[in-house]
Design a protein that fits this description.
The complex is a heterodimer of chains A (about 230) and B (about 80).
Chain A: H1 2-28, H2 43-70, H3 75-107, H4 115-136, H5 140-154, H6 157-167, H7 188-228
Helix pairs in contact in A: 1-7, 2-3, 2-5, 2-7, 3-4, 3-5, 3-7, 4-5, 4-6
Chain B: H1 3-54, H2 60-65, H3 69-72
The chains are: A mainly alpha (about 230), B mainly alpha (about 80).
């Protein structure tokens, strides 16, 4: 337990330092071009970091769900999948919120049914439904199996969201294509520090959330033990 | 205030504050769930010890009432 706490404190410390450095670079890189929103474009550094974590969380859920079904339905894989989806949903909400705050001054609207925005919203609803459906199934084994199948099938929404800017005509900036949003050398430190910091924050949150599930399992076992006596 | 400055105050700062607020609330929610479950574990362990030391089974009706982790701490 003490070793677990020490590791968490170390991870929180490192992610805090990385985030502080990322914020410093975010606010000191030269002002972006006018068409990308001027100073408001600085939202981009953490909008991308948050989006990366949301995608990573759902990718981890996808992998854990495959492992759950492929390796004898081990509870640990279900715990990872469940914990990661919750973090993915929280970060998904933040992706949309930060995107809206950038869009308002640049596109002059909070929301538009652009392919990237629409697919992001659909993905978010899919994973909110995952959490709701999990809560509706009482039998733990059936619940875990159903959740794993659901997570594998609906993970398709994540690459669709990612490639939406390539496959369809969209007004959302496409980093891969460059243009006004091309990552210049002065922008790279802020961008990569943000990505590293948010990844570590995800690891810290995942460990904490998994611990909650493990304690819930302990409660269930103790209750079962009490009732069987 | 220049339009650029107005954008910073209206959108950039709320974006950063909002991120920290949501993250903080989420961490609080994880912590609160963890605490409640730890209380439940403690309560259940105490109940089990009590049962062992007294050597009397918990009444069936009382045991059946324990259905949710949050209820255990209240027992």
């Amino acid at each position: 337990m003490a070793r677990r706490d020490t590791l968490s404190v170390v991870l929180i410390g490192i992610s805090g330092l990385l985030l502080a450095a990322a914020v410093f670079f975010t606010f000191t890189v030269p002002t972006a071009q006018r068409e990308t929103g001027g100073d408001v474009q600085r939202i981009f550094y953490f909008h991308v970091g948050i989006a990366w974590v949301a995608g990573l969380a759902l990718l981890v859920t996808f992998a854990a769900s495959i492992l759950y079904l492929a390796r004898g339905e081990q509870r640990q894989h279900d715990i990872i999948a469940h914990a990661s989806v919750e973090i993915g949903v929280v970060f998904g909400v933040m992706v949309i919120a930060s995107g809206m705050l950038w869009a308002r001054p640049v596109w002059n609207t909070w929301w538009t049914w652009d392919p990237r925005l629409t697919t992001t919203a659909i993905s978010l609803f899919i994973y909110v439904a995952y959490l709701m459906l999990r809560g509706a199934i009482d039998d733990p084994q059936r619940r875990a199996r159903f959740a794993a199948v659901y997570a594998i099938i609906f993970f398709a929404s994540v690459p669709i969201t990612y490639f939406a800017t390539t496959w369809w005509n969209t007004i959302h900036p496409n980093l891969a294509e460059g243009g006004a949003f091309a990552l210049t050398s002065s922008m790279r430190p802020a961008m990569f520090l943000s990505l590293a910091a948010f990844t570590l924050i995800y690891v810290v949150l995942l460990r904490a959330r998994m611990h909650v599930e493990q304690t819930a399992d302990e409660v269930a076992v103790l209750k079962q033990h009490m009732l069987s006596q | 205030m220049s339009p650029e400055m107005q954008n910073i105050v209206s959108f950039l700062i709320p974006a950063y504050v909002g991120f920290w607020l949501i993250t903080f609330l989420y961490v609080l929610s994880i912590r609160s769930r963890q605490r409640n479950l730890e209380k439940d574990v403690e309560a259940l362990k105490k109940m089990a010890e009590k049962k062992q030391s007294v050597g009397v089974d918990m009444p069936a009706g009382k045991a059946a009432q324990i259905t949710k982790p949050s209820e255990v701490s209240q027992v």
